[in-house]
Each structure stands twice: as C-alpha cells, then as structure tokens.
Amino acid sequence: MANPARPAFLKLVHSVDDVPMAAEQTTPAVNAQGLFFPSSSANTLIFADWEKTSLADLIDILELSKPKVIFDLRITPRFDLETLNRKRFFGLLEQSGCQYIDLLGRLEISDVRSASANPVLVGRQVGFIIGALSIPHQGPFVFLHDDAFFDDGYIHAFATSLPAIGLPWQVFRPSLSGEKPRPANATVGQPAIEDAAPLVRRAIFISHATPEDNDFVLWLASKLTTAGYEVWSDITQLQGGDSFWGDIEAAIRNRAAKVLFIYSDTAKRKVGTRKEIYLALKVGEHQRLSRFVIPMRIDDAAFDETFIELIDIQAIDCRNDWLTGLNSLLLLLERDGVPRQPNFEANQFFGLVGKSGSPTFTVAPIEETMISTWLEIEKFPTQVNFFSVAGLMPDELRDVASRLNVPAFSYFALLATTATQERTAAALEELGFGHTRLSLRAAVPWNAFCSASWADLPRASFADARRSVSLLLNRAIARVLNNSGASTGSLANERPFWFFANGRFPKNEVRFADHRGATIRRQLVGFSNKRKVFWHFGVQIRCGLMANNTYLLVSPHVTFSANGTELLASKVQLHSLRRSFCRSWWNKRWRDLLQGFLAAVSSGEQSISVDIGSGDPMIVSAVFKKFASPISPIASVAMEANQDVEDTIEDVWDAEEGGFDELTDDDLGDSGGSN
Q1: 525-528/533-546 β-pairing
Q2: Considering the entire predicted model, what is its pTM?
Q3: CA-to-CA distance for 265 and 212, rounded, in angstroms?
Q4: Count of CB atoms within 10 A of residue 439's CB?
Q5: Residues paired with residue 12 on neighbouring β-strands, in sequence order
Q6: How far is CA 473 from CA 89, 104, 391, 446, 453, in A?
C-alpha cells in the first residue's frame, strides 16, 4: 500500500499500516484537529519537547490534562527544568497520580534513529502497556522527548499504530501552542494587560456562513457579550443599506482583537468568508498579532478541506459540545489579554435577542434588581504562612492538612495555612502530632498568594494559585458550618453538603429578614406522614473564582432521613424522593430557604465571622449579593400565573403508584409577614 502524503501537524490521521494488529482495531479514518490546551479527554496524546517546554507548560499538562502515564522517549532522561529537579518532578507526578515509564530504557533503545525506534514498533509497545492499565487504553498519555527526530511524520505514524478507543487520537504539543508567559503581577483570573492587543483592538470579529450558521453565532455572541467582550458580526452590526465590505474590512483592520472563523461544511464554500479570513491572516501577520485567527469547528466537515491558509492553525472543537468549545475560547481570550468591558453591554445584548427569531421573551431597557446566590467576601485573610514540619513525612502532610481545625493544605514538603505558628502547632497537637516542630519558610501576602507570586518557594502556576485559594476558603467556611451544629452529608460527587437534624430549632423553623426586609419564617426540616420520612433542606458552599472576583457560591440540596438524623442509604430512593418532593418549589421558595439557612448559620447577623487561625477573622456577608441589570425580560406570550420559567425543578410522581402528596405551605412553614 502506498503511504499517503504526510499531513500537516495536528491534523489527526487514519491508519495506513499494512500489518493488522492482533485482536485490536487501528484508529478509524477520521481527520481531527489538534488542541489549544492540554485536554483531559481519554483520546489525547501530548508530545512535549523537553528543550522547548516550560515549567508552566508541564504544570498545565499535569493539572489540565491529568495524564495517566508519562512515557519518556529520551535516551538520557533528565529533570532539570527551571526550578525543577528530579525530586520535585516525581513529587509533581505523585501529586497528580501519574505513572512514569522510561520507555526507551525499558525497550533497551540507545539510538532514536535505530530501526528498533521505528514509530510503529514503539507505538505497539505503548499499546501493550496501556492495554494493561486498570482502564485499558484510556488516556491522556504524555510523551517526553528532546530530539527533533520526533517530528510530525513520526507522531503521525506513532498515533496510527495505537489501538483505537472509539475516538480518533488528538494531539497537543506545548512548544507549538504559541502562548506567552503571564506577567508575575497579574492576579488570578484577570487578563494580563501587558499581553493584550492595543486598546483600540477590543472587538471579537466572527466570520461565518450567513444565514446557515446564524443560530450558533447568535448563541456564541450572546455568551461572549455577557462575559464582557465586544462582539462584531454581520448579523448584529450590519443593517440594510450599510457599506457591507467596507465595514467588515474596517472592523478586521482596526478593531478586531481576535477573528473567530466558524468552520462548517457551508462556510468552506463561501467566497465572503474566504475574503474575511485571507484579510485577517494578512493583518495578523503584518501587525504581528499572536493567534489572531481562531477556527472553531461546529460540524463534521473535514478540516483538511478548509482554506489552505488555515491548515496549520489549531482549531477549537465545538462539534460535540458547544459549551466545551466556549470554555476553551474564554480561557484563550483571558490568557491572551483580550480587553473586556467593565460593565455589561445591555444594548449589544438587546440587539442579539431581537435577531433571534421569535423568542419566548424579549428584553426591554428597564432596570431590574437580580438576587444571586453569591456571598461576598468582605474581608480576606491577610497572608498565607508556609511552614516546614519536622517530624512528618511529606506524604503524610496532605492527610494531616485536611484534618486540621485551621484552613491548611500541603505544598510539596510544606504546610500552608492562614493560621499563626502557635495556632498551627496547637492544631497539630490536637491530632496527636505534638512532637512535630514548625519552622516558618515564607509568609506570603494574600494578593501575592492569589497571583502565584509565592516568594522563593517552588514555582506555582496560576492553576496552583486558583486551586489553593479555593481549597483554603472552602476549608475555612466548612469549619463555620460544622461549628453551627449542621450535620454533613455527601453528594454523588463525594463533595460535602450541610443540613440540620430534626429538632435543631424550635418547630424546625428559623426567622429572618428576607430581601425586602420583611420578617418571615421557614422550616428547614419537616416530616411526611404519607412516606414516613423526614426531609432536610441543606446547602453546599464553595469558593468561586471568576475574572478578578472571588466569592462563595451557595447551592441548595434536599435530602431525606428515616429518623430525622441519619440520611437514607439508598441513592436510588433519595433521588426518587427528591424529584417528587420539590414539585411545587419555585424560585421564591428556594431563595427563602437558602437565606433562612444562612440566617441559621449566622445567628441572624448580616455577616459571618470566620476564624482562620490568625487572630484576624475573615468576614463573609450572610446576605446574597444583588446585581442591577439594565434590561429586563418581557414575556412575548401569555404565561401561567406564578409560573417559574427558568428554575423549574422537574418532578413527575405518579399518584397512582403511591407517590408523595404535594406539600402545602403549612407543611413547609411558608407563612410570611411581620411577627
């Protein structure tokens, strides 16, 4: 069989091997484009050139991709990468749960150009190894190399020799990602202003097939607009009689920070989109705009049939899930510092709704107050202390940190906490580790901690910082909930939530001021005579990070017990009860129950004082944050009275099968007004 021409890098290939693999199928003949970021998908192959990969790249791979195995394709493995050494390298792998295999050493290959290093042979050896994993052939898998011999052709042949897992293999190479280093003074989640395009380039230009792909573009434009970006597309900007091409050319040449090419089977045949992309590529090249053109795939049109100018440009894949593609795009825009509007662009969103056919709702320029489920952190910790702990092995620190009665986490061989040395030592002694000795390694101010500027400690990525901020704040608020007398349950994802047992409050009721200032009462626990179970309203509170906002997000949960204390063990029964029980619970009830639970935790105060072990508490608002929207939804069709459109809880319980009786206001203690 004649070998086909070697494809451009990152366009995944189909098998051309003449020798069939025993009892396995080779990768199906599907072309696929590579990735902007390390993916955690099981069909991901990551090839990292050690000479060109940064420590930030390596950490991103471990954290974003969560690889199962790292295969080393270097004749002489070494691990000196920036501040990394062998010990720290394997410490990172242990933290990530990733296995390391010196593949060439295991195969006794001393020269990558020898016949034994043939990519098909090496690929099949990898296939045997990954076939023996607990979940066979499920990646991602990382391959370290330091030789230019591992080029596009080698990767092509290697990928086609691996066993199929039902999806084509997709490839990521960090050395070709084109990412710029993030400034050290940037904060977590905040665009790097130094890396941004000139301020005059604020718009995200969308090139697409009109009208065939309008639905996707309207959806994408609405999401980008609500995220604070200025969006330019022909369906939102051009009106009848406008200078069509002149406006498009001006937008690309002078205003666009990025040009999104919505690639589809229709778009590839459009002359207009070809002109737009050709111009955008020339503008990006002439003005040296990194990653100026970003293709987004929305259907199964073969990427090797796209415009020749785009063959080597990585695409964002939206074919299976628009939201996943959007998240990748938002991360890319944030990393590249594309400017965002400080306020919501109501007029632009208003125009998008007007373009969307006949929606159930239209929008009007009428201001409306929105009540979120966010709790504002009014006062943050002042610093995070990193202690070395003599008397504890590094592999013990993670478990110990999770059990301390002060917020803490382990970082390599260090214990990081918001608590003072005295409080930390006392917390260790409570767990039976009074023999340990603490030494302060570094005291990092909170803002520096959030921006991953951790003094001379082992380098932390921004993903490290985000995860660590969340971990500390989650553990801090968990202590408050535990101390409030609430009981702990476990969700399906093993995360905790909190609820109150029967009898915790008189009549299981709490009294509080609602969002209008009126005093009302709500039951947080009740009993169904028909089903002979107690119901408990509970919450999960966790840290949220969005752009430069750090907040606590409160989520509602309803659970059940037979005795008012111990939750039912059957997940199936819990799920069935929950679906039925909340049938008549609309937004108002959920909102009031959430605020009532917070009132119980805060003892009716407007804020919650969180002991973080420093002597200076963190302060969290106990009242949900409100936002003022400059627009309001107006129903374009008649709606049922009191119908809750957006947050309806699906509930189908067949009364003939002995289901629940619908709860009344008396059952739930839904009396309102002043008392």
Answers
A1: antiparallel
A2: 0.55
A3: 10
A4: 11
A5: 32
A6: 28, 44, 27, 12, 18
